[in-house]
Amino acid sequence: MKNALAWRYATQKYDPTKKISADDMTEILEAINSAPTSYGLQPFKLIHVKSPELRDQLRAASYDQSPVTDASDLVVFTVNRNIENQHIDSYMQRIVEVRDVERERLNRFQENIVGVLSTLNSAELVAWNAKQAYIGLGFGLVMAAHLGIDSTPMEGFNKERYDEILGLTDDHSILVLTFGYRSDEDHTQHHKKVRKTLDQLVTIK
């Protein structure tokens, strides 16, 4: 894993002729789905954009960044501006089904979630949801590297235009993750990574 993480970088130029297998893409999506989130709520969704026409439009809304169209796969993370009680109810029901517990045993857990979320305004809730999405992004990056697949996390795009292009109303585009295989012409792949030393990063007390 250490070698895989050292190998990966934010790919700037993809080879558009190389495609990820369906099985590998499923593994990446499953890794994102397995990421931990606060209370286990998973307050984000993924849009796997396969349409070339949509990706052309998204590239125009991404300051003409080539990975949007040239990478094999593109995933948009979205978050909701609200977490409805229905979403929490649905999560409680999944717990009942997966763990085979009585619904009544989850009432206090649900009340705790609702109580905490009720203290957040809309902007705070979007920020809280986004934090959960970034954990999922990290899992996707690591799984891709493990599979020898390149990736690029992106925040540099017009989020309002993405929402319009993707027909989003309640949900809001928060980040983009592309996957594929690096082009030989991407010279940034040869750049040495610049990171803090562990002594600079970690304080022991």
From TrEMBL:
<dbReference type="GO" id="GO:0016491">
    <property type="term" value="F:oxidoreductase activity"/>
</dbReference>
<dbReference type="InterPro" id="IPR029479">
    <property type="entry name" value="Nitroreductase"/>
</dbReference>
<dbReference type="Pfam" id="PF00881">
    <property type="entry name" value="Nitroreductase"/>
</dbReference>
<protein>
    <submittedName>
        <fullName>Nitroreductase</fullName>
    </submittedName>
</protein>
<keyword id="KW-0560">Oxidoreductase</keyword>
<feature type="domain" description="Nitroreductase">
    <location>
        <begin position="6"/>
        <end position="181"/>
    </location>
</feature>
<comment type="similarity">
    <text>Belongs to the nitroreductase family.</text>
</comment>
<dbReference type="InterPro" id="IPR000415">
    <property type="entry name" value="Nitroreductase-like"/>
</dbReference>
<keyword id="KW-0521">NADP</keyword>
<dbReference type="InterPro" id="IPR033878">
    <property type="entry name" value="NfsB-like"/>
</dbReference>
